[in-house]
Each structure stands twice: as structure tokens, then as C-alpha cells.
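Human:
Focus on the backbone:
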Amino acid sequence: MTTFTVSADDMEPIALGGAFLGTGGGGDPHIGKLMARAAIEQYGPVRVIDAEEVADDALCVPVAMMGAPTVMVEKLPRGDEAREALAQLETFLGRKADALICIEAGGLNSTIPFAVAAATGLPLIDGDGMGRAFPELQMVSFTMHGVAATPMVIADEKGNSSVINTISNQWTEKLARAQTVEMGGAALVAIYPMQGARMKKGILRNTLSLIKEVGETIAGERAQNRNPAEALIARLDGRRLFTARVVDIERRTTGGFARGKAILKGVDADQGRNFSVEFQNEFLIARDGDGTALATTPDLICALDADGGLPITTEQLRYGLALSFIGMPSDPQWRTKAGLELVGPRYFGYDQDFIPLEKLTKAA
């Protein structure tokens, strides 16, 4: 079991690692990093604890941003919405939270919980519900372990909030997404309240430690004027997918999601080849020019700026940008029948069965 303390300066590598493992989604990590740094500087450092340190009857609550990452670039949070959502959920439940959880290992949602943890003095559990980022609320490991998403509280920057109770986690996604759209496309939520015993069964462990380590690797490699791709592939059992330049980008914000497709032309070792990557907030499927899948959800598809080595999110995609795409195996829970029903290619409408990354690509 490991416990560690996160300072304001630690938020830089955590934001970098979250942006990379977020598979292009989870929101702009820069915004969350600034929020977390400000909170830690005001209230003090955050304690990250192992899941086994949590009592079985403790109340554990994930806090997160919900909505389209493209919206968060311009619609900045006020800063206290997630804390207010948590406080209202505590009032509804009639008890205080004992620990906080990151709902996903991605971008803004890997940093916002640190801001709430600092402001409340609550510890943050070393783990999350995805091991990456996914676009819909029910797409968490907790769903596979029977944890209800509701009651949940959703709050916006204008001061609006509501408590939602639903009959299933899929209905939570539908009703909360509709409210998020009316709130301007992005909102903050306190969701999946659970006891410590349920958390220990459902959480994907040690992902906050991993996020920090990945971010430190990226920063360290960049400091040595090296692209971090090879070091990350070695550390994460990854596969090099391709290096290519964006030649066309279709992106639209609809239904509370950023959806689209990038067309890319290969460079360097991939000169002469064509590729495409489709996304719904996160990168979901990467294909060769002939349509052959190179990697599919739930395995991770991550992008680095081919020149600077920084993680690239879907809202940062633009014409002319050169990218190195890396694939990584997802947590084994996502490769089960229950996991694929939640986040497999067919759920997203692709006429494609999931094939493990290691069968689609060769080891680097």
C-alpha cells in the first residue's frame, strides 16, 4: 500500500500524464491543472491513499466534468462547481464524504478531483473508474460491479444545480446529458456515491500513481530533447501505430459530445500511407488507409505532438499538425463480455468486433 502527497508543482506531470492516458478526451488538462494548483496553494497539499486504506463503510464519491471538451476551451468553470455538487450530494445523502475518486484517467477529470480534495481536505483514492477516458457516464468499471450512478448532483457555472435519480446508469447518462446540453455543453458532477467495500471491488487501482509517472516520463524525455514516444511504449506495453500529419479534420459538437474524424497522411517511416482516427470526445478507432483497424476501443489510442512530444487532445487537432499515435492495452476488465458491451466498437456504431491491440500490431 502506498500513500503519497501531491503539491502544487506535482500538478504539472499529473496534467501531462492525464492528457496522455485520456486518449484524446477528458477535457483540457491545462484548465484543471490551474484549478488544482490554485486550490493546493490556498488549502494545502492533497493526500493520495491506497484503496485498501479506506474503511468498508466509508462514503467514496467521484467528482468530474461532464460534457464536450471543445466547449470547455471557451466556457471556463467558475471553479467551485464540483465542490458545490459534492456538498449538495452530501446534504441529500445525509452524511459527509470520506474520500474522493477520479472518475477517469483523463485530462480535466484527472485534475479537478485534486482541486476538490484540497478544498475539502479529503483524501483522493489511488485509482479511477476507467484507466483512460470514455465519453458516457455509464462507461465505468463501477457499472460492471453493480454500483448505481445516482443519486448524483449536476451543477453549472451560473449556479444552477439538480439532483438526479434514475433506474439505471444508462438512464443517468441520457438525463444528465440533456441537462448538460441545456447548461451550455459542460457541467460538473458528483456521482456514483459508494461504500468503501464496493469501491475496492470496482476501482481500477493505482492509476493516479501511473498518471504521475507517465507525466514525469514525458517531462523528463522532453528535457533531454527526446520525443517521449519510445519511453512511453516501453513503460506501458504500448505499440507504435503510425506517425502522420493531419490533412483534414471533421469535428462537430452535438448532443453534448465532440464528435469527428481526422484524416492523416503518413510521414517519416509511414510516408506514402494514409490513416484515419475517429472520436467521440476520445479516440475510438484508428484505421489504415484501406479501412483496416489498427486499434479500437476499449484499448487506448493516444497521440503525441510528433515534434514537441506533448499529448494532444481531440479539441487540439488541426490541419498540418504532425502526430505520433500510440496504442496500449486496456484494463482486462474492459476486454470481458460485460466490458465490451459498455465500451466496445459496436456500442459506438462501428461494424467492427474488438480485436486486442497485440493481435493487430507488432510489438515496438
Notes: Residues 207-223 form the longest helix (17 residues). The two ends are 32 Å apart (CA to CA).
